[in-house]
Specification:
The chain is mainly alpha-helical and 109 residues long. The protein contains 4 helices and no strands. It has one domain. α1 runs antiparallel to α2 and α2 runs antiparallel to α3. The longest helix is centred in the C-terminal third of the chain and has 30 residues.
């Protein structure tokens, strides 16, 4: 039964990864692409790793999967924020239909 539940969780993770990859292709600018990659793919990888833990249990492989999940949860949003801030500081334009630019508002004050 654990195998079936684990494979279902892994399948959900693969779907989130697929949606994140589609978002990378379909989004209009670098900021939207970073958001799609960060949220969808981070959640997808976490589901895959949780599925691995459910299948193998709390042996050394399961503990390594949990450690990798914590590492990804910390580094992925941090890296995406650094990339977005660097893109904004280097002058990468927002999509023409963007409503507001919060960074620009903070820099002008």
């Amino acid at each position: 039964m654990n195998n079936i539940i684990g494979y279902i969780i892994i399948g959900i993770g693969v779907l989130f990864n697929l949606f994140g990859c589609i978002g990378l292709l379909r989004m209009p600018d670098v900021y939207c692409r970073l958001q799609a990659a960060t949220k969808c793919v981070t959640l997808g990888i976490c589901f895959v790793l949780i599925g691995v833990v459910v299948i193998v249990g709390f042996n050394p492989l399961g503990v390594k999967a949990l450690i990798c999940m914590v590492f990804i949860l910390v580094t992925s949003p941090t890296g995406a924020h650094a990339l977005a801030r660097g893109a904004h500081k280097s002058g990468v334009k927002l999509w023409k239909k963007s409503v507001c630019d919060k960074y620009k508002d903070k820099e002008s004050k």
